Amino acid sequence: MAAALALGLALEPSPTGTGTHCALGLPPCGMLAATGRPCPTCGVTTSFVLAAHGRFYDALVNQPFGLMCFVLAVTGILVTTATLVTRRSWVPVLTVYGVAVPAVVLLMLALLSWAYKWMSL
User: What is this structure's pTM?
Assistant: First the structure.
């Protein structure tokens, strides 16, 4: 998670709102190139990088799920640090609340973010 945040700081966000991942040597989005419409993850890297640079509003407007990924990464680092400092595991919390519900909620938020991105282009 720390490496993802460091990489987000090192990259420059694409001014088009998509394509920041190409700076990592990855190919452009095939769906966007073929149809002109964004795939479910279009803009997530750009939004994550915008958030890493402290541009939270721009990240939200660009692709809300990218901002959520950034918040989850920061939260993960804080929870891991708290776990190390207190020497108390967070695994019992997962077993009480389960993993399925948060996973379904994240999937729904990702799909809603895709719909938002689809309508904004």
Answer: 0.86
